[in-house]
Structures are given as structure tokens and as C-alpha cells.
Amino acid sequence: MTDGKSTTDISLGRRRFMQAGAAVGAGIMANGMPLGQAIWAAEGKVLRARSYADINKLDPGFYQNAYNVDVMNCIYSKLIKYKPGREWGWELQAAEEIEQVDPTHIRFRLRKGIMFTGGYGEMTAEDVKFSFERIIEHDSPVKGDWGPLDHVEVEDDYTGVIVLKKPFVPLWNITLPYGCGHIVSKKAVMEKTGDGGDFGMEPPCFSGPYVIDEWKPDQEVILTRNPEWTGPKPGFDKIRVLKIEDPKTGETAYQAGDIDFTHITLSSMDRFKSDPPEDTVIEDHPSLYYIYLGMNQDHPKLQDINVRRAVQWAVNVPQLLDAGYFGQAEVATGFVAPGLTGHREKALIPPEGDLDKARDYLKKAGAEGLSLNLDVLNETPLKTMAEMMQAQLSQIGVNLEVSVQDPGSFWTIGMESEGDRWKKMQAIIQRFSMVPDPYYATTFFTCEQVGVWNWERFCNERFDELNAEAVTVNDPEKRSKMYHEMQDLLENSGCYRFLTHGGSPLMYRKTKLKSATRPDGRPLFRDFEPV
Amino acid sequence: MWLYLVRRLFLAVAIVVLAVTLLFVMIHAVPGDPAAIILGPRATPELKAALHAKMGLDDPLPVQILTFFADVVRGDMGTDVFTQRPVSRIVLGQLPFTITLILTSIAWAALVAIPLGCYSAIRRNTMIDKVTGVLSVGTIAIPSFVMALYALLIFAVLLKWLPAIGAGQGGLWDAIRHLILPALAVGIGWVGYISRIVRASMLEILGENHVRMARAFGLPERRIVFRYALPLAILPTVTVLGVGMAHLLSAAVFAEVVFARPGIGGLIVTAVNTRNYPIVMGTVLVTTGLFVISTTIADLVNAMLDPRVRESL
């Protein structure tokens, strides 16, 4: 029996609402927590970060593009992973220990208790063997990352040996800690695909601290904690990776409070540094990309090395960078970015060039009044640099016509497989992405790559020899010298004028998170921590 | 009316087939290899060849076109080369966002512009008419992306009243909040445009004999405007709204980029850049279909309102 007034009566009048609100507010204040943070804590720890593209491949053995790997890092585990910080290095993840036994053998021991979701059991050395060997067996487009992998020997449930046909040093920099290093469940993948091939966008199970909660195509991917995860607890309950293609829109979204982590453009960096959004940390990271002016040495107009040298010396790189990147990007000394083995302290040709020398070379070639075509991607900094280059070359009497191309058209200009366009290609402002090993920069400029990705058609025996040998050399100093020589050869050919690596500045809200990135600013969401 | 309907539908199908064929030829005429883009720099020639074969790119162009239409008739628009998902699922997944944006933009623009145009016509040469005229021309002249950027800076960044990006996390109110700024940016130019058309059309109708006759009979002005003038004056507006769908589709492209909204516009831009032919064709087919449907509806409405139109086809 009750007296007619139920104990569950929760009707809330204006007075009671005010009282309750005041009590909650006072409680929060007494706890020393600002209201915004109290709301943040109550919502659960959600990381909202920008990605410039939507995921389109979740099979690590067939991965494409870094934005997919950003998500893979959270949902799968690898033997080793990149160490967050300002210097390149790796640390253990799924491996309890790993060692280079000899130049062609790497022994690893897995941590016990790493579980695959969906009842697929514990991660074993057999899964590691399957994950790595399927990349070669199924002729993955990224099988080059595994270089000369022969096979993986399984010693017991947790121990195995990676056996290479010949030494391959980049394995520690670009294979094991990156896309191809992720481990998938043999049983789950075989069940899903039948032959162990590409499972595309439908992972049969997960092995990382997060699982995919929802993928809204063209909008966002939402990751939540993996309930079966037995490793160190990740910082955030949920990660929302929002696709925002345009970097300026990303900046606006950050300022509006819609996201808490984004990369920013170099053109905005000065503004954000002088007037940062509230509670924001702005970090400047060097990028690994390499941007250069390339010249097709087989084109009749550029066959004479003196013409190419004239162009090299006429280009004033700091001026280009002032125009294209508002002076925020550093001059490149070669293809290998600072911080990596093989980075050169300076290029052979000074960044400012020399117009008199350029005129001399042009005169020697008897090519005064030359007219050249320059292909460039339709991106503002690159277009701006092309226009500036046009002005610079006009100073030595070279008429440069700029031809702006959309990505679909641009990325096939120099390919022999795409018709005769490579024959007409003269000069190009090229930008290649890069992973943290110099091998990846030089391997596209061998004789074998002429007409594939080597559009300048540079071909040098010594370069090819060095390129093949440098991946087998463990001594960083010796290896570095080899890459120096390779970049000297490239520059001396007259086909290349190194411009910049760009930059990868970012910002995040320090009241919400502590970011964890690779030295090039690539986010390692798994290691992000809430504040 | 039925004969008109049949003729109009036949024409609509012919337009879709012609437009899609033309675009098919055009997209294949520009340089670019989807296999090179999809597989990336490390792809071997063998892998590229295999992907070409899988995408049917080795077939002659007429065969590819016929295969495409035959598949569409069977309800298959192909498969996305990146994610291996059916194109129909991808396009239809994005379509509601674009349609919502377009309809909201045109609806609010029409709701504001039609009364504004009427009022200007009735109060011709008054101060209000002149101010409306200046504002109308102003909204037509200012590019939509400029409006979008200012709207973002004011309402999202400065005031933080509305979200800057996306389409919402779910729930009607959230979706509406995410729709306000893009719809404002896309629709604002149309306010001026429609109000100018309605005003000009109303002025013409208000000067016609039947309206003068109605006035001579002493009918109330409100009844003359809404009963006898507006239904006739609205005819050109209906046609413009139908054709305007195509314009709004292209306006949706910028809105989807600036506001990071999902939709057909963003999808087609990315697909063209990556030479993702199945997605390009799927989106072109759907957008052409949308355009043809909207113009057909506009024509049918016109034919219903004005019997003379039925004889014109």
C-alpha cells in the first residue's frame, strides 16, 4: 500500500529543475572539473579525427593507401609497430621478442593470449605464416613490401622464423611495422575467401584493441573497443574517423568543434600559429613526400644534357616554395627526407640556382628561345610553383607552357602502357608518397622502371647496382652513403631538380587528447590518449 | 493528356540513353588508366592486365556500352573497383543525401521567393520593390560557395550554432541541423532568381484583360492575385524549377565538398578523378535520370495547367 504518492514520481517542476541543476553544477565545480570536461567525461571518451579519404580496403595483405592502414593499425595487430615520437623507430606489439638471427632469418615469439574475435581463437605463429605468405602467393600489388620473402617456419604455437631469400633491410622499416605486417586469422580468412585471397572490405575477424562498429561510406568509420582484447587498454572508448576530403574544410570543422584532430595546410600554419584556436596544440612535422621537377631525357628537346642542366640551374627553389607553400616548406636535398637513412645534407646544385650558369648551359646546347611543356597536377601549391617556374625560366629565355591535369590523367602521362603520351611528355612537377625507407624512393628510378614509374627515363647501371645492394646492407652509415651516391647520380643526369618534401602540420585539442604520431605526423590512433 | 504523357516518357528514356552514351564515350576519351590508379605504383603489368580484363576495358567501346545498358536493364550497375561493393548500393546509399539537400534548398528558396516576387509585383516601384530587387540581384550575383564559406564562418565557427560538416549521427533533429547551412548556401541564389521570374510574370499577367475585367467587376485584390494571376504567373517558375534541378545537382557538388557531406556530387568527383568507371557511369545514369524526371514532371504540370502545352510536343 502507498499513500498515493509513488516513490517513482519523477515529475520535474521548474523549481526542482533549477535546484537539481545547481546541485550538479556545484558538484562538478567542487570536483575541480570544468563543465566542458565534465560533459566530455560523461559522453564517453570519443576521439573524432579527420581523414582525407574514406576507407576502401581493409585486407592488410592487399592494402592500398595510408588512410586504410590508419584504421588497420587499430583493428589488427603486428609483430612490431612504429614508435610514436619525433624519431623513426619501432617497438614490440604482438611479438614478445623478435631478433635478426642472421641477414636472412628473423625469429619472433608471439605474446600469449592475443585473441581473434568471433571465436577464431588465439593468435599463433601459423597465423603469422599465413598472413605473410598469402601476400606472395596471391600476387598482391604490395608484395614488393615483402621483398625476397621465401617462407615462414613455424617452430611452435608462438615461435616462428621469417626466412628471406636474400637480406632485405627495409623489412624493419616498411614491412613489419606497416600494412603488410598485420596478422590475420588463417581460419577466418580461409572460411571467408576459400583460397586465402583478398577479403576486401569485409574483415572476417579482428585482432586489435578496436573493432569496426559501423562504416558509413563516404562519411566516417566508427571503431569501438574490442571486448575480447587482452592487451593494454586503449585510451578511447570510441574512435570516429571522419572523411573530410578538403583540408580547409577540415580546419573549419576543427574550429567549429566538430573534430579534435586534423592535419592543416602549410598555407594556414602561420595563421594558426599566431592565432591558434582555443586549447589547441599545433605541431609541425616534416613530410616524407618528395616533390621534384622531372625532365624526360628521351624527348628530342631535352636529349642534350646541357638543356636539362640549364633548367636545373634556372630554377630557384626557395622562391618556388615561398609562392607554393608560403615559405613554410623546406628545400629538399634529394628524394630521401630528413630523418631517414640516406638523407643528404645538401644537393649538388644550390637551392637558389644560378641564372648565369643556366644561360651558359643553354648557349652550349644552342637552345636559346626554347619552348617547353610542363605537366602538373591540379593542386594549388603545385600549380603555383609551376607558374613561378614559368617566370623563372623566362629569365633565361625558355618559354614554359604549363599544362594542368586532373589526377586520372596525370598519373598515367609517362606510362608506356598508356599509349604515346610518354613520348610527348617533356617536363613534369611530380609528387610521390613515401614510406620510411630510402629504398622506396630510389626503386622507382631504375632502368626496369623506365616507362612504368620512371617517367624521366633515367637509366644508369651503377644506380641499379647500388639500388639492389643497398637493401642488403645493415650498417646505416654504409647504407646512407650508397643512397647519397644514388641521389648524386640522379641529380647529375640533369633529369631532376629536387624541390621539397612539403610538410605535415597538424593540430589537436589538448583538453581532449594527447596525440601519438609517427615522425611524419601520420596518426597512430591506437596510441592516442584522452585527457 | 495520355498521348502527351506517353510521348514525354519516350523522350525522357531517349534523353537518358543518349546522355549516358555520350558521357561514356567522353570519359573513355580522356586519358587515364583506372588500373594504374587503383593498384598503385607497385602494380605489375600482369596485375594491371588482369584488372583491365575484369573491368571489361579490353572490349571495344560499343561492346562496353551495350554491356553496360544490358546490365542496367537487369538491375546491375556493376561493381566498385575499389571496395567491390555493388555500384547500385553505393549510389543509392548516397542519393538520399543529395535529394534531401536539393529539395530542401529549392523548397525554402521557392517558399521565400514566390511571395516576395508577388509582393514586389503588387507593390511595383515602391521602396520595398526596389530593396527586394537589389537583394534579389545580390543573391544571384554572389556565388554559392562564397555564401557557403561565410555561412560556415559565422554560424559554425564564430557562433557555434550549427555543425560545420557531415550529415549527422542519426535522428531527425541532428539531420536538420546538419542540413541548414548547406541548404542555405545552395538555395540562396535561387531566392533572387525565382522572385525576379515571379515578379516579371506577375506584372505581365496583372496587366492582361481578364485581370482588368476582374478588377472592373470589383473583385477583391487578394482574390484577383491568388485566384486569377498567380496560377498563370507561376507557369514559367515551374519550368525553371524543373530545369533548375540540374543546376542544383552541380551546386550540390561544391556543398558536399565544402560541408564534407555525403552525396552524389562528391561521389562523382572522386570517381572521375580516380577513373572509377563503374561509379562514374552509375552516378551519371542516376543524375541524368533525376534530371529527366524533374523536367518531365515540370512539363506535365505545365501541361495540366495550360492545355496548349499538350499540343506542342
UniProtKB/TrEMBL annotation, chain A:
Belongs to the bacterial solute-binding protein 5 family. One of its GO terms (biological process) is peptide transport. Transmembrane segments: none annotated. It is found in: Periplasm. This is Peptide ABC transporter substrate-binding protein. Its main location: periplasm. One of its GO terms (molecular function) is peptide transmembrane transporter activity. One of its GO terms (cellular component) is outer membrane-bounded periplasmic space. Residues 95-440 form the Solute-binding protein family domain. Signal peptide: none annotated. The lineage of its organism: Bacteria, Pseudomonadati, Pseudomonadota, Alphaproteobacteria, Rhodospirillales. Gene3D superfamilies: Dipeptide-binding Protein, Domain 3 (3.10.105.10), Periplasmic binding protein-like II (3.40.190.10). It comes from the Bacteria.
TrEMBL record, chain B:
Its main location: membrane. InterPro entries: BPD_transp_1_N, MetI-like, MetI-like_sf. It holds the Pfam family BPD_transp_1_N. Gene3D superfamilies: MetI-like. The keyword Nucleus does not apply. One of its GO terms (molecular function) is dipeptide transmembrane transporter activity. The chain crosses the membrane at residues 97-122, 134-159, 179-198, 232-259, 279-301. GO terms for cellular component: plasma membrane. It is found in: Cell membrane. It comes from the Bacteria. It is a multi-pass membrane protein. Keywords: Cell membrane, Membrane, Transmembrane, Transmembrane helix, Transport. PROSITE patterns: ABC_TM1. Residues 95-302 form the ABC transmembrane type-1 domain. Belongs to the binding-protein-dependent transport system permease family. This is ABC transporter permease. The lineage of its organism: Bacteria, Pseudomonadati, Pseudomonadota, Alphaproteobacteria, Rhodospirillales.
